[in-house]
Specification:
This protein is globular. Strands 2-1-10-11-7-6 form a six-stranded mixed sheet, with no helix packed on it. The chain has a four-stranded mixed sheet with strand order 5-8-9-12. It is an alpha+beta fold. The protein has 16 helices and 14 strands. Helices cover 48% and strands 13% of the residues. The chain starts with 5 loop residues before the first helix and ends in a 9-residue tail after the last helix. 49% of the residues are buried. The structure holds iron/sulfur cluster. Iron/sulfur cluster binds next to helix 5 and helix 7.
Length: 486
């Protein structure tokens, strides 16, 4: 069955009913549980937009495999234009949700695995690419959501996968059978895990030759026997899914991605769903391509979120009567400048994208790392400016119960009012939204999602071609190139 609408998507999640725990209890319906429902609604918007006449051009694509119209979140990028549409789609969804909508992780996994399986087959004569395309056609035709499962626990980080005292610290093949493989291990921080249909397992890092059991790529349903998910606790836990409250922040969409630990307890995966089986030399390129695609995204999705945050701050200053002050306008200008700088990187990554041997397009990897690295700084600076302009009442504001209390409510409404004729509820709602978008989990996600800052610095130095830059300087300074160390 093809999932066309958001309600098809929700129903399919109820039918799947994966094994999910949260705060020590089983969640039996992720579409209705207050901890997970906002994240489901954010992801559901990827289904809604694909049916909307105004957004269909961005939110759908034509499959190069079948010629059929598919949800863009299942598409393999065939051109720079596809990459550009992705950035625009992510910004749009960020604007509409003010939140992570999660579906990009699997999309980036699909694109990375597609190009790498092609190259493995070219070298080894395997048939991973055919298997992967067959699986992907199902994903496209049924419009399924995929969680890209990359990050392993890693145990003692001074040791590689095969040297760990506990061999389960990286997902590994326990057994190879005639009909498939048996997996054990776990993946952490799995964005959208509890509300996806399929898990696409990928290695977390480049593997050495002795780590063949850890060099595994495969796909399995989220409700496969032996799969358990534990949904993460977040800073805004008690403010989610409470749409009638004025102090919930972003009650519809939660404001951040919903992440889970996924444990694989001797899980069987048939061969037709295995897309890498020990080819360690391809783990590095796979991780690299996935990371590049996902890092490029941040200039799209986070810019959309920042559009919301900047709008929230601008509105708050207006209803507080400070919007005409020169320093307020200057700080808003700075916020816009930083957000658009992030967007520029994402656009540049797409425009400078190039085809891989498989034909799938890959973003410019240097610019993707630069863009994500800037996100880890600019999002924080924009949040700092937002808090500066919003004022200290963000931290001291009483709750909804106090505002609606018979005796104390009228005082609060009087003393928290802003300019004339604006209901005090507007000021509270917008303040709580700013609070939700500048706090705890949101900023951690910007820092570490798609890789921590140091991971980008490693890639920038590796790709920065210092030797060529030295030669440029030597040529202008009239220094013979032989005086270089190299
Ligand atoms: Fe997509 Fe952005 Fe969320 Fe990553 S952080 S899954 S790119 S919305």
């Amino acid at each position: 069955m093809t999932l066309r609408t958001a309600s098809d998507y929700m129903k399919s999640l109820r039918d799947l009913n994966p094994l999910v725990y949260y705060q020590g209890r089983r969640i039996t319906d992720v579409t209705r549980h207050p901890a997970t429902a906002p994240h489901v609604r954010a992801a559901a918007l990827t289904y809604t937009l694909a049916n909307h006449p105004r957004y269909r051009n961005l939110a759908t694509a034509v499959s190069h495999l079948t010629g059929r119209t598919i949800n863009r979140f299942t598409h393999v990028h065939q051109s720079g234009e596809d990459l550009l549409k992705k950035v625009k789609l992510l910004r749009l969804l960020g604007q509409k949700t003010g939140s992570c909508f999660q579906r990009c992780v699997g999309w980036d996994g699909i694109n990375a695995v597609y190009s790498v399986t092609y190259e493995i087959d070219q070298k080894h004569g395997t048939d991973y690419f055919q298997r992967f395309k067959k699986w992907l056609v199902q994903i496209q035709d049924q419009n399924l959501m995929v969680v890209g499962a990359m990050t392993d626990p890693k145990g003692d980080r001074s040791k590689g996968p095969a040297q760990q005292p506990d061999p389960d610290q990286y997902v590994r093949i326990m057994e190879r059978r005639a009909d498939g493989v048996v997996l054990r291990g776990a993946k952490l921080h799995m964005t959208g895990g509890v509300n996806s249909h399929e898990i696409l397992i990928m290695p977390t890092t480049a593997m050495e030759a002795g780590a063949a059991d850890y060099a595994v790529v495969c796909a399995l349903p989220v409700n496969a026997p032996g799969v358990t998910m534990i949904f993460g606790r977040q800073a805004n836990d008690h403010r989610k899914d409470n749409r009638e409250r004025i102090d919930a922040g972003n009650p519809t969409f939660g404001g951040v991605g919903g992440e889970a630990v996924i444990v694989f307890e001797d899980v069987f995966v048939p061969w037709e769903r295995v897309f890498m089986n020990g080819e360690t030399e391809f783990t590095g390129p796979l991780v690299y391509r996935f990371a590049a695609h996902h890092r490029a995204n941040y200039g799209g999705c986070k810019t959309g979120l920042l559009d919301v945050l900047i709008g929230a701050v601008a509105y708050l200053t207006r209803i507080q009567g400070t919007d005409r002050a020169a320093h307020v306008r200057d700080k808003l200008t700075e916020m816009i400048h930083l957000a658009e700088t992030l967007y520029s990187s994402a656009v540049a990554c797409a425009v400078e994208g190039r085809p891989t041997p498989s034909g799938a397009f890959l973003v410019d990897t240097m610019l993707a790392n630069v863009g994500k690295h800037n996100t880890t700084r600019f999002h924080f600076e924009i949040a700092r400016l937002a808090l500066d302009l919003a004022g200290g009442f963000l931290a001291t504001l009483p709750s909804q119960h106090d505002f609606t209390h018979e005796r104390i409510g009228p005082w609060l409404k009087k003393y928290f009012s802003g300019v004339n004729r604006i209901p005090v509820e507007d000021r509270v709602k917008i303040a709580r939204l700013i609070e939700a978008m500048t706090g705890g989990t949101t900023l951690v996600e910007s820092m570490h999602g798609a890789g921590s800052p140091q991971a980008q610095r490693v890639m920038m130095l590796r790709e920065g071609n210092l030797e060529q830059k030295i030669k440029l300087a030597q040529a202008l300074a009239r220094i013979p190139p032989t005086r270089s160390r190299e």
